[in-house]
# Entry
Amino acid sequence: MKKLSLTESFQKRLHVRRDDYPKHHTIWHYHDEIEFIYVAKGSGTLFVGDRIQSFNQNSCVLIGPNIPHYWLFHNDYLNEHNPIDCIVIHFKPDFLGEEFYDLQEAKSLQQLILNSERALYLENCSSLFSNLFFKVHEQSNILKITKLIESLYYFQQSEPILLISEEYEVYNHSSDHKRMNNVINYIKDNYRNKVELDTLSNLAKMTKNSFCRYFKQKTGKTPIQFVSELRVSHACRLLRSTDKNLKEISFESGFNSFVNFHKIFKSVTNTSPKQYKKENIS
# Structure
């Protein structure tokens, strides 16, 4: 896993950028800064801690410091003719100074920062909220900071959901980012086909038992759980955006039987594929 040294790169405690291509997102990485990102255009799957979460345009995520994450944008957005549009903000937890949170008015913001350690997700953001994000990018000097505080305030007021489980522990990931990225990239490219444990352990240059323990430590999931949840995430996208029948979606998502698809889908989403489609028609 790769640790990005944002402070060394940008020489500041707050950095804001606007991305039209996911070149900075598609590696399994972590950093000391909090990541606050608004997806104005784009969709895909977010891996963060021990959670695999589908995301769509007009959604927002707050990820705490040193939490491993990986943004997998759908192939539709990997070319210059259909760019993404994301406002990405990185800031230190104490970017306003260590004594700022002593203010009574700042206590709720302090709690939000603490909750970011489990990552927070909000979909269907209001126009007020999205406009604030663009202003953070456009403004300069003190206005950039005030708009960021305002964005964090409205984000919290919108009651985002927690993504990472309480059982997940953050380990020191600095020594093996290449190994983990090799494995994640292989799974990303092949999850709709058969993914063999032998292949994954060989990529990691470990025995199968050692690899399973290693992967569970890094992601909070077994390799089988990870692949299954990625397949479910892909199936959710097809259920929302296509008219394909359930069996077609099942096999296109990498499941070897419809019965297995139904069982795993329900265990991950707590609903059946049929009910999910009914509730999420585009």
